[in-house]
Amino acid sequence: MPIGAYDPWLISHCTPEQALEMADNINAKYFIPMHTKTFQQGREPFNEPIDRMLTASQNYKTKIAIDEIGQTFKLDA
Predict the structure, then answer these.
(1) Is residue 69 part of a domain?
(2) What is the pTM of this model?
(3) Which backbone phi and psi does 31 adopt, to 5 degrees?
(4) Residue 13: enclosing H or E segment and its boundaries?
(5) 3-class secondary structure for 36-71?
(6) How many domains does the chain contain in total?
(7) What is the pLDDT of residues 34-51, one digit of tens each?
(8) Is the peptide bond before 49 cis (omega within 30 degrees of 0)?
(9) What is the sign of the dihedral through the CA atoms of 13, 17, 22 and 27?
(10) Residue 60 is part of which domain span?
(11) In a domain, 74, yes or no
C-alpha cells in the first residue's frame, strides 16, 4: 500500500493511517508499504510515513510485513 507523498498530493495519495485502514477493510493479513524511503517524493519529512505507519499499526489487525528497504518477507504456508 502507498504510504508516502501525501503532502501535497493527498487527493491522490493516502496517509499511512488511511492505508492501514484500507488494508484492514479488505481483511489483509500483511501490510507492505510503498512510495516511501526510496527518494523524497513529497514534502513530508523523509522518515515520517514509516514512523506514522509504525505508530498507527497498533490500532489495526493487519501486521506490518516489512518496514525497511531491502528486507524480505516470506508467507507461511
Answers:
(1) no
(2) 0.89
(3) -125, 125
(4) none
(5) CCCCCCCCCCCCHHHHHHHHHHHHCCCEECCCCCCC
(6) 1
(7) 988 888 889 999 999 999
(8) no
(9) positive
(10) 6-64
(11) no
